[in-house]
Specification:
By secondary structure, this protein is mainly α. It has a single domain, classed as MFS general substrate transporter like domains (Growth Hormone, Chain: A), CATH 1.20.1250.20. About 80% of the residues lie in helices and about 0% in strands. The chain is built from 17 helices and no strands. Helix 2 packs parallel to helix 6 and helix 11 runs parallel beside helix 15. The radius of gyration is 21 Å and the shape is globular.
């Protein structure tokens, strides 16, 4: 039997407890999906109540993405220093406060500030959850588990969107944020009870009680204890963010970040503007939320099928293939549809491929970066990507406000997925580019 706890995890079948950790992280990402899209569900009501135009609404829709950028970059490094679990437990209350504050906002400036705060919490949590899932899974199921975690995003939007559609039939837009805050707080005890610190991170940190904590987690996973820990091989660099641009990781970091940034431009155009486009077609806000739900149903199905295919199909070529189809579907989405049913079907198909591209990028980041900088790398890619993609809703809003038609806007926004597939194609050949940081 292996004596290195990481080998025990990598070589053994996954236990119910390990799948439970994955399930908690799926739930957290589902929470992210709802929190990010809550402003989309609420945007038609906000525009009506406050009388703001499309350009101003585009700025509001971008605010939590800016917060996510800050949170991902700043707190990704924190997750590599204090742990994945502590970072998640710190981010959840921040998200809840931001959601409650947004529900009480009475002007655009206040709403923007609360959405930035919510985004900071989401960004930090995302950097930690991606690393936590990768490190809790066996080697054979690591990519599948990361993809399933990422699939929580559209799942949360589907569940949250369905509930939002019901709530909006009986109350105004603040109820969407209030509901999100309550659910966010409900995850604190779940993480506390069912998501221990990852063993690979514990083996980096090495304190007087590390062996006892690792053996306690191994016992919950159904593994025997180890009597001693092997020597440290991977150690945390003094500046994890700087380490991403070391000779062994710089090319990977740049290309992954470009791919994530570019594809998110396309992804968030679909997610952020679908409700307003549907309302402008003459349908009620509740119907707009319903179409957005179908977008995320497509995204959920796409993510799950993508995850199952990772067992048999190489990860990078499959991600490139779905990027190609993402370009095609976004352009087709911009052609417009005759009725609500056709609009929902096209939105679902577009969501299928755009979200499959997102989960593919998550899996590649988790697979290719080493443990000491995994959360930092995730945070940097998400931070730069989502911060830059904040331009997507604002850019689309500016073009709409200046009379540019939906088809032309969609073509412009589809170029993001095109750039992403070119960046992935430029990655060095090989399944993984992991390097070790020597003590």
């Amino acid at each position: 039997m292996p004596t290195d706890p990481r080998d025990l995890i990598n070589r053994s079948p996954m236990s119910r407890f390990q799948w439970g950790i994955v399930a908690v992280m799926v739930g957290l990402n589902a929470l992210d999906g709802f929190d990010v899209l809550s402003i989309s569900f609420a945007s038609p009501g906000i525009a009506h109540d406050w009388g703001i135009n499309r350009a101003a609404l585009g700025v509001v829709l971008s605010m939590e993405l800016i917060g996510m950028s800050l949170g991902s970059i700043l707190l990704g490094g924190v997750a590599d220093r204090v742990g994945r679990r502590h970072t998640i437990l710190g981010c959840l209350p921040v998200m809840a406060v931001g959601m409650l504050g947004a529900s009480s906002a009475h002007n655009v400036l206040a709403l923007c500030l609360w959405r930035v705060l919510t985004g900071i919490g989401i960004g930090g949590m995302l950097a930690a959850t991606n690393a936590a899932v990768s490190e809790a899974a066996s080697a054979a199921r690591s990519s599948l588990c990361v993809v399933l975690m990422a699939a929580g995003y559209p799942l949360g939007a589907v569940i949250g969107g369905s509930i939002s559609a019901l709530l909006l039939q009986h109350a105004n837009w603040p109820i969407v944020f209030q509901f999100g805050a309550l659910v966010t707080l409900g995850f604190v005890p779940l993480v506390w009870l069912f998501a221990p610190e990852s063993i690979p991170f514990e083996m980096q940190r090495r304190g007087p009680h590390t062996l006892a904590r690792i053996n306690a987690t191994l016992a919950r996973m159904g593994h025997p204890p180890v009597s001693a820990l092997p020597p440290v091989v991977d150690t945390l660099p003094k500046a994890p963010l700087t380490a991403l641009f070391s000779p062994g990781l710089a090319r990977l970091t740049i290309l992954m970040t470009v791919a994530y940034f570019a594809h998110l431009m396309s992804f968030y155009f679909i997610l952020k503007w679908t409700p307003k486009i549907v309302v402008d077609m003459g349908f009620a806000p509740a119907s707009a939320a319903g179409v957005l739900v179908w977008t995320n149903i497509g995204g959920t199905v796409g993510a799950v099928l993508f995850g199952l295919l990772t067992i048999r199909v190489p990860l990078r070529p499959m991600t490139i293939a779905v990027m190609v189809l993402s370009v095609v579907l976004i352009v087709a989405f911009g052609h417009g549809q005759a009725g609500l049913g056709m609009m929902a079907a096209m939105a679902a198909a577009t969501g299928f491929f755009t979200n499959a591209g997102i989960v593919g990028l998550y899996a590649l980041i988790a697979r290719d970066f080493p443990t000491p900088v995994r959360a930092t790398a995730t945070g940097f890619a998400i931070g730069v990507g989502r911060g830059g993609s904040a331009l997507a809703p604002a850019l689309a809003g500016f073009m709409f406000a200046n009379g540019v038609g939906l088809q032309a806007v969609a073509i412009v926004m589809a170029t993001g997925s095109l750039i992403a597939l070119l960046a992935l194609a430029a990655l060095p050949a090989g399944a993984s580019l992991r390097t070790n940081f020597k003590a």
